[in-house]
Amino acid sequence: MSYKVIAALGDSVTNGYWDETFSGWFGRLASKISAAHSKSFGFHNLSQDGDRISDFFHRFASEGLSREIDILIITVSGNDLIRSPEPDSPQDLSEHLRNEYWHKLLDLAQKNIPQIIVMDALPRHKDNTIAYGWFDAPMHEPNSDRIEYNNQIAQICKNRGIPFFRRYDKWVERDLSKYYVDTAHPNGDGHQLIANELYDELEKLGVFDEK
Fold it and tell me: pTM for the full model?
């Protein structure tokens, strides 16, 4: 097997916030892959707390293109959907702007990265709970918005021939109190579960096949 580099673009969840080991699902995935395929893969996590799809694009353009990436994993971010200060306030980014940035990012990525995988946004735990962010402003993030957004990005990926890894339906049926530290961030068990499920998905996609 030739040496490959796997990179990730995402927000605080992909960056591993609130994992007791500070590894996050990407670090745990790297450990799992390295144990099974020694010296065959390298890893870059390009994620940042608070990032949205617009940040994904600029971060990839400024950091990702300077690295030799073979497989890019992009996670749909709930940060794109924040409504503040009221539940019916406009979303943080308009649907038009989100759509534009997704196409800009995928255009650039498909020109430079051999394999791209997009993962959906996971459900929030206790959907009606209000979070507080910048300047203590109340933030509303209903799961109905996540479902709609996941479907939108799934269609974009389908049109482009990019694998879209759906997890939402399976996760929403779980007792998320066992896997989350708050309404949206996984704990160590949650990060490990993400890593395990993504490992299986990468295996199905033939990422680990000998060539």
Answer: 0.95
